[in-house]
Amino acid sequence: MSEVKIAPIPDLGQRTDEITIYAGPCSVESAEQFDEVAECIADLGLTWIRGGAFKPRTNPHSFQGLGEEALKIMKSAGDRYNLKTLTEVMDSAHCQLVADYVDGLQVGARNFQNFSLLKKIGEVTADTHQMVLYKRGFAGTIAEWLAATDYITDHGNTNVVLCERGIRTFETATRFTLDIAAVPVIHKQSLYPVCIDVSHPAGQRDLVPSLAKAAVAAGADSLMIEVHPNPPVALSDGPQQLTPAQFRELVAELRELAAVLGKKIV
Ligand code: PEP
Ligand code: MN
């Protein structure tokens, strides 16, 4: 009889009493813009900054991101402010480039079932075990999400965070419908930490604080929140981004809520 092999799971089960916030602008637009957000995040004692370098825009004539220039801006701000960096990779051809510049790689909702991209990310991070934040697609079920996660982990990197970012329903009052139940369901069915992106389902900044508090209350392991120094002039997702002042206020509230649950915001 052949021996049953159990794959080693070195990074699994990283759920802790810490709630990580991945904050930062939707798009990296300039060094000045990114630094202003980095300074705010570092000043709050947080650990990660996000930013878009390659943007998956619905319309090809919309701002597509600064590409490698944005990666350089992120690296330099990350080094200067001692923050870990997270950005989306959209194309298999860019996986190594992106992995060379940032700490964490994001798979966007539009690439939920881009299996060749998921495989490539798994290959590129097999040795580094860089964090992969894998977003749910607009119309993806949790079962499909968990199944496809294996495309990333099959090469040995199990350092995956599953990010719920809202799904498509008949409701139009919000940009997407936030499936808050994804948190307990995924916690029940896997050991992966769950992130709730509160900005993309909200679509409008005044809804963001309520969704963020709901995510913490539901047991989310991390939150994604878009922050821009001057949202009205943002090159993408202006209406949903918080100003640094609004973000500070929200983090203070989330810290109080987290403390009640015996958790810490980092
Ligand atoms: C983003 O995080 O900026 C983004 C494009 O997200 P999503 O893939 O969830 O739309
Ligand atoms: Mn965005």
Uncertain runs are 5-11
The overall strand count is 9
Largest sheet: 8 strands, parallel, barrel
CATH superfamily: Aldolase class I
How far is the first residue's CA from the last residue's CA? 48 Å
Strand content: 15-25%
Can you tell me the CATH architecture?
Answer: Alpha-Beta Barrel
* Small-molecule binders: phosphoenolpyruvate, manganese (II) ion
Give the count of structural domains: 1
Summarize the SSE layout with pairings.
Elements: E1 18-24, H1 31-43, E2 48-50, H2 68-81, E3 84-88, H3 95-101, E4 104-107, H4 115-124, E5 131-135, H5 142-153, E6 160-164, H6 182-189, E7 194-197, H7 199-202, H8 208-217, E8 222-226, H9 244-260, E9 264-265
Parallel strand pairs: 1-2, 1-8, 1-9, 2-3, 3-4, 4-5, 5-6, 6-7, 7-8
Helix pairs in contact: 1-2, 4-5, 8-9
The structure holds phosphoenolpyruvate and manganese (II) ion (MN).
